[in-house]
Fold each of these.
Amino acid sequence: MNDLHDVAIVGAGPGGAAAAHYLARQGLDVLLLDKADFPRDKTCGDGLTPRALAVLGDMGILSDLRRVGRRIRGLEIFSPNGRSVTARIPEMAGMPDDLLVVPRMILDNTVLERALASGAKLAGGIPVGAVEQRADRVVVTGEHAGGTVSFQARMAIIATGASIKLLIRMGILRETPPMMVAARTYFEGMSELSDRIQLRFDGVPLPGYGWVFPLSEGSANVGAGVYAGRTARRRTAISARQAFDAFVHSPSLERMLASAHQVGPVKGYPLRVDFATAPTFGERALLVGEAAGLVNPLSGEGVDYALESGKIAAEHLAWMFSTGDLSRKNLEAYDRRLRQHFQSLFLFCNRVRDLCLNRICLNFLVGAAGRRADLKTALIRVVLGDQELARHMSLGRILKAVLAASVI
């Protein structure tokens, strides 16, 4: 095709669609490409943190999602020994004080429709195989209806999630980065659900975790994740399905699922958690969301970072277009902007994960949080990815508080 777009975005999930919305709202010609036809499902935990809700509110679609989602007021964390700590969602500057659980079939389509309403265009059902620089543009090549199609744009955004094939072909990645793996399904007819999500370290192989995210009074997204980069060093690596099976057959989950029935298959998926060392741009291309490794290495949450980085990429590209300077030095400036926004949080979460995702430390941490309100709030804020906490709270201070609370 001969049309020259301002920006071609590969991947129409939350990160790509959010970027498309913000760019189109600035009057830029934006083309979204995706291998799927929408609406489509996406394997995920379905939870939306306050960070995600803040961006969705800024996009003007939060009220629509609240009408179809399950509002969550609190969070309960279970240690390996079965003890728990419960807290309301704490207030964080400029963000809602709740969570929302929305199936990705609904969420992704809502964000995409907002982008299209803002003026972006969509080319669905097109698996993209190459993004190549040609002088002052990129050429995006894909497959459609048994043939090859191509599109031209002055700049590209890559929002392809955990899939790394395109990034390797573009020369942005050279090898498979560190991954988490997870699996989830849905259950209906469950008992013991409330307006809290559960993050559980009991009944799962460590280093890993399980979750229960309520969708209604009797239904939930239930899943488990495991840190593949660490378990790979064991003699026998633990798969996402093995972690899931162990979780749902643990005593606590068997009780919750005693009268429930499974809805749909168990689906597994990888999660890239390597932002701290990941590339964030290529030739005439910016990376957003999981394509830049932006999945929290502690919680496995990625939708909020996809939305935020999509907005940041759009703001940065709009600025580049306004200056007329699409050079590499301004692509490097995008990397610096992402590092300023996310790097301290990811380094902090990496350290917490590596130190605390073992049985003894988790038992101490959750037990101490149950005795100290300040430590409990800090623990919840860490799980929710609070950037301000990561910037101002050292791991040493948390450990001192844990030890102090443990001897009370």
Amino acid sequence: MSVELPKLSSPMSINASFADGIVHVRLAGTADVEAKPDLDAVTKKLHEECLRLTATKVVVDLRELEFMNSSCFKAFVAWIAMIRDLETDKQYRMHLLSNPNL
């Protein structure tokens, strides 16, 4: 099942789906300063969707992301903090997939 995300105004692309209790997210392109507002909105929406769908895990695939600046990386740190601040029974795990060549 596809997960609806906010429309992006940056050159980055983000797709998400949900199956078997797991939200799968795929990012591609460049996460630079222009992408920061988009990434903030998307990570907030993904967190809301993980809670709504009672996901047990979210897998974030960064293997097609060519670049991520520190402010965009901070969006993921903020998302992890949102998960950590949940009651234990509502928390879900996050797995990040990266490309060691990039």
